[in-house]
Amino acid sequence: MRYLSLVFIMVSVMVLVGCGGQNTPKEDDGSIGRDTVETTPTEGTVQVEAESYTGSSSEPDSGDVISMTADGWLEYMVEIPRTGRYRVVAKGSTTNGGAVWVEDYVGNKDDRTYDITGKLNLPADVMKEVFIDGSPLQAGPHPIRVHAHGGDVTLDFIRFEPILFHRDTKESLEQNMEGEAWELVWSDEFEEDGLPDTTKWTYNVGNWGWGNNELQYYTNGDPRNARIEDGNLIIEAHKDAEGDGWTSARLTTQGKTSFLYGKIEFRAKVPTGRGTWSAGWTLGDSYRDEISWPYCGEIDILECVGYEIDDETGDGINHATCHTRAYYFKQGNQIGSQIEVTNMNEEYHTYAVEWYPNEIRGTLDGEHYYTYDKTADSLEWPFDKPQNIIINLAIGGGWGGAQGIDENPDKPKYILDYVRVYARK
Question: Where in the chain is the domain with CATH 2.60.120.260?
Fold first, then answer.
């Protein structure tokens, strides 16, 4: 899976927000995220008034609200008090269908554009607040730009409200990789019906696009999106009755357990359908916000998109990839491989990597088909540091939505029989 995310604990003074300012996402007939709503700032909130800009694309009007034409921008320096996931609120309006989006780390050394909100569509002719949830922000100074998109906008302020604070991972397991046999050292067999085991997993939450312009809102503890039934973990995506919104789930071990080396296995079935994007992967435990990636490293073990899966036969393709600062997809030089998989949606397959101190080997049902062995320096090989396990089902995005999204989809289900980590002995 592309980019991102770490695990956080809930801010004690604020419940997680879902759709339209409610405490949980709406039922299937509700709209998801990006509603206009007046919200109450919480402890740790940082608000930036529009007129306090430090730079701009053109000389804007003076006053308490600032107007921008389409594709204009205003630049600010924002001091974030604590690392975590934030709700980003913009108060503004438009006369012709405009939106705003927030760019983080302007002028970074890699010359990358870090879009941490996606488009926040502003209401017509009246000043109101719009928001997005889950934007990752590390404590410290952030040079940001607020961009106008698609039309003229008037901006009153941008506000950053913490919804989850970062939590350091409690335990790190380093696996021995010498010996003839494999020994199980960690697993979730998904045997107890109900919600996922919170001693092993936490939830990533929000709908900021996840670095890939994805459509889903990842929920927290909603059994519609993540539940254990009959010995399986089911991650299920739900579509809005109106609009393009979805809910789904993304589980991670960060904050609980990280791993260094070992064999990591996912035994799973994946959904068909254009627009689905199933993943089982790892992300460096050092991830804090978008500037952490790809320096922290990423290992994609199970990754497939629905448009590559035949709806009738279930035959498709799995992709294995390692992303590092030296080799990653935004440069177009990622090192990956793929393998054909039969009946991916109705038959369990075992997707795995064997992660050694000097190479990573990908397998499908025990068949080796992928090797990453670039170890010259930390830019090629960040894999001498712990990683977290992530499982998620995304909808749309730059890859998952490359051929569109089915107009009348069923509720896609990503089904996992187990997740296991082994050491050699």
Answer: 8-166
Q: Are 201 and 190 in contact (CB under 8 A)?
A: no
**Rounded CA separation 129/247 (Å):** 22
Give the residue among 371, 349, 347 at the shortest CA–CA distance from 360.
371
Residue 248 in 3-state DSSP?
strand
What are 387's strand-pairing partners? 259, 284
Q: Is 49 a catalytic residue?
A: no
Residue 195 backbone phi and psi in degrees, to 5: -80, 160
Spatial distance between the Cα atoms of 374 and 294, rounded to a whole number of angstroms? 15
**Spatial distance between the Cα atoms of 114 and 133, rounded to a whole number of angstroms:** 16
For residue 128, give both structure tokens.
């109101």
Instruction: Return d(Cα 15, Cα 24) in angstroms, integer.
Output: 9
Task: Report mean pLDDT in 10-residue bins for the chain, 425 residues.
Answer: 35 30 30 44 87 93 91 97 97 97 97 97 96 97 98 97 94 97 98 97 97 96 98 96 86 98 98 97 98 98 98 97 96 96 98 98 98 98 98 97 89 97 98
Annotated active-site residue 298? The verdict is yes
- Residues 67, 384: Cα–Cα separation, whole Å: 49
Domain 8-166 sits in CATH 2.60.120.260: yes
Angle subtended at Cα 21 by Cα 20 and Cα 23, rounded to the nearest 5 degrees: 115
Active-site position among 298, 308, 354, 380: 298
Cβ neighbors of 201 (< 8 A, separation 6 or more) are: 188, 251, 252, 253, 256
Assigned token pair, 219: 């929920």
The one catalytic residue among 265, 303, 308, 380: 303
The Cα-based distances of 85 to 5, 39, 111, 136, 164 in angstroms read 10, 17, 24, 5, 5
Please give the CATH topology (third level) of the domain spanning 171-424.
Answer: Jelly Rolls (2.60.120)
Q: Strands 257-260 and 171-174: what pairing?
A: parallel
Phi-psi region of 107 (alpha: psi -120 to 50; beta: other; left: phi over 0): left
Is the CB of residue 165 less than 8 Å from the CB of residue 255? Answer: no
Residue with tokens 């108060």: 91
Q: Enumerate the CATH 2.60.120.200 domain ranges in the chain, comma separated.
A: 171-424
8 A C-beta contact, residue 11 and residue 167: no
